[in-house]
Structure formats: structure tokens, C-alpha cells
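Example 9 (inverse folding). The structure is encoded as follows.
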């Protein structure tokens, strides 16, 4: 008797737990009913989901009725809990109250999983559809303006019209539309840049003409001072020909305008590089003559420092090299040989005077000259110790 009284004393708390559980299950069931309706055909099996929701309502109603029966007859609480649960028509729902609760929880979990998956697919579909629609609209506009990828845009538009609610098709369309937009925007960038450059061609060509005049002056100056010089002609800006009016180009479809503009702009770019190359090649010959001058006088000072300033065998070699280097035009190849003869003679004379020290000072200087490093004594000589360092 005392056990039964204890069970009866706990019954209000147990019923309160069932009330709370039923309230939570009801809220969840109502929410899932709305979500199943909204998801519709996005569900893997819409009919099965609808049947599960209907079964859940029946199960929840049967559980609620059994809880109320226990509340109405507390003395039969244990028996009612263990008795099979049935619906309004007497059809069995579950073996007992606990099993019915577990059954309802399982159905709700299954429906929740199906709806959550459908909602995720729907969200992705919405994102892809929005992105594809926006990118395709921009791509179609640019395709019409540029005359590029018109057929591809039309095909993509046809696929969009037939895609319906297919996540796979809209994902593919989103990728295709984004690629079309990126490529067409790149082409549009080329178009804009080309027309901007064309508008500034007048000032660009004026700058190139000024550069051409500078290079021609450099070439003439070098030719008057040294030989042999590179066999290079100075390109002419005027050889580019007439510049087509921009209004004429803007009236063309872009593919035709691009064919007219790109080769001309490429020739303009190459012209500037050609001027730099000619100037560098000619200036290099003059710089070589100047380096030879510095090397010659560095060895003249070296000879003087070794007591060979008045050496009769060295003087003719020095004068011959100086005569060639300070003539106009100077034959740089001949001058290089004369300087080599003189530097080798100086080294030999010094070695003959001081055999022990000669080995360490036997370099003629040509190795360093070929490596592009000017000897320190050559740099000193270029200030013109004898008053001739400035040269021509």
C-alpha cells in the first residue's frame, strides 16, 4: 500500500513532465508541418514526408489522450501506461505509452532530417539561381556591345529557362555565367584601354618624335667619334602612317575596331623599345673608347711610377695608342689592339726590372675591362692628369 501511495504522490510530477514533452513535440510538429509544405517538391520524397507528418499528428493525439486518461484515473496510471496505445478508431499505434513517445520522436527526427536537407538544397539553389541570373544579364549586355560570345550567352539563357528547380542545372549555369562574365569583362577592359590609348596617341607620337630626334643626334655624334658602329637604322615615327579618327573606330563593332587598333598600338610600343636599343648599342661603342682611354693613361701612370716614364721602347707605343684614341673617328678595334700592345709592354718592362714583383702586377687590364669593371687607376686617369682626360 505504501508503494502505491508513493507512486500516486509522484504522479503529478510525472504528468507535468508528459505535459511539457507534449508541448515541445506539438510545437516541433507544427513547425515541421509548415516546413514540409514550404519545401514541397524540394523534398526527396514529398509524399512520404506528408504521410509521416500525418502519422505524427495521430500519434501525438493518441499519446495526449492516454495522458489525459491517466490524469482522470490516477489509480490506473500504471495499467494505462502499459496498455497498448490506439487512435480514435481503435487502430494500434504502439505497444505502450513509452513506445508511442519513442515512435513519435523517431518520426519527427526523420522528417526533420529530410526537411533540413531540402532546405539546404533550396538555399543553395536560390544562391546559384540569383548569381547565374545576375552574371548572365551582365554577360548578355557585354556580348551585345562587344560582339563576342553572343551565341554562348543565348545558349545559357535557354538553359536557364529550362532549368526549373534543378540544383544541378543551376549550379552548372552559375559556373558558366560567371566564366562568361569574367571573360567578357576582360575583353571590355581591353576595349576601354585601347580607346583610351587611341585618344592620347597624338601626345604619345609627339613624345616619340622627340625621342627619335634625340636618338638621331646620338647616332650622328657617335658616328663622328668612333668606328665601327652597329649596323642599325633609326626607326621613324612617320613610318607608322596616318592615325584613323577615333570616331570612325568607335562606330565599328569591337572585333573590327580591335583588328584596326591592336597592330598599330603594338608598333607604337615596339617603336619606343627600338629607340632605346639603338641608343644603347651606339653609346656602348663610345663608352668602350672612353674605357680604353682611361686604361691607357692608367698604365702610363703605372709606368711612370715604376721609373719608366722616359723609356724609349714604351713611348712610341703610348703615342700610337693616344693618336688613335684621340682621333675622330677613332677605330675602336685598332685602338684596343694598340692599348693591349702598350699595357703588355709596360708589364714586361716592370717585370724585367723587378722579377719578384712582376708576377703580381702582370695583368694588362683587359680582363677587367672585358668583365665590365673599370680599374681604379683607369678611373683616376679619366679625370685627365695630363690635361687630356676630357678628350673628344
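The amino acid assigned to each position is listed next.
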Amino acid at each position: 500500500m505504501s508503494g502505491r501511495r508513493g507512486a500516486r504522490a509522484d504522479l503529478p510530477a510525472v504528468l507535468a513532465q508528459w505535459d511539457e514533452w507534449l508541448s515541445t513535440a506539438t510545437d516541433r510538429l507544427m513547425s515541421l508541418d509548415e516546413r514540409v509544405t514550404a519545401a514541397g517538391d524540394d523534398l526527396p520524397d514529398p509524399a512520404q514526408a506528408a504521410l509521416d507528418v500525418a502519422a505524427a499528428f495521430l500519434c501525438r493525439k493518441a499519446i495526449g489522450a492516454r495522458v489525459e486518461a491517466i490524469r482522470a484515473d490516477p489509480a490506473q496510471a500504471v495499467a494505462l501506461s502499459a496498455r497498448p496505445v490506439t487512435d480514435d478508431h481503435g487502430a494500434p499505434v504502439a505497444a505502450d505509452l513509452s513506445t508511442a513517445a519513442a515512435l513519435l520522436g523517431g518520426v519527427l527526427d526523420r522528417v526533420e532530417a529530410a526537411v533540413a536537407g531540402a532546405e539546404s538544397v533550396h538555399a543553395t539553389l536560390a544562391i546559384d539561381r540569383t548569381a547565374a541570373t545576375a552574371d548572365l544579364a551582365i554577360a548578355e549586355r557585354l556580348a551585345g556591345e562587344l560582339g563576342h560570345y553572343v551565341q554562348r550567352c543565348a545558349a545559357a539563357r535557354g538553359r536557364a529557362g529550362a532549368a526549373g528547380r534543378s540544383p544541378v542545372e543551376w549550379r552548372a549555369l552559375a559556373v558558366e555565367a560567371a566564366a562568361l562574365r569574367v571573360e567578357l569583362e576582360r575583353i571590355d577592359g581591353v576595349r576601354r584601354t585601347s580607346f583610351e590609348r587611341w585618344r592620347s596617341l597624338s601626345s604619345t607620337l609627339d613624345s616619340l618624335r622627340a625621342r627619335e630626334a634625340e636618338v638621331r643626334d646620338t647616332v650622328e655624334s657617335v658616328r663622328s667619334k668612333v668606328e665601327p658602329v652597329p649596323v642599325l637604322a633609326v626607326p621613324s615615327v612617320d613610318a607608322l602612317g596616318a592615325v584613323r579618327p577615333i570616331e570612325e573606330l568607335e562606330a565599328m563593332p569591337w572585333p573590327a575596331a580591335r583588328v584596326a587598333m591592336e597592330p598599330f598600338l603594338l608598333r607604337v610600343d615596339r617603336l619606343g623599345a627600338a629607340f632605346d636599343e639603338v641608343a644603347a648599342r651606339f653609346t656602348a661603342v663610345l663608352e668602350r673608347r672612353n674605357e680604353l682611354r682611361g686604361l691607357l693613361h692608367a698604365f702610363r701612370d703605372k709606368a711612370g711610377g715604376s721609373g719608366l716614364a722616359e723609356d724609349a721602347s714604351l713611348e712610341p707605343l703610348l703615342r700610337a695608342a693616344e693618336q688613335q684614341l684621340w682621333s675622330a673617328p677613332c677605330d675602336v678595334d685598332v685602338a684596343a689592339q694598340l692599348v693591349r700592345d702598350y699595357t703588355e709592354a709596360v708589364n714586361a718592362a716592370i717585370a724585367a726590372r723587378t722579377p719578384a714583383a712582376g708576377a703580381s702586377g702582370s695583368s694588362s687590364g683587359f680582363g677587367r675591362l672585358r668583365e665590365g669593371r673599370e680599374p681604379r687607376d683607369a678611373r683616376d686617369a679619366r679625370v685627365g692628369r695630363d690635361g687630356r682626360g676630357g678628350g673628344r
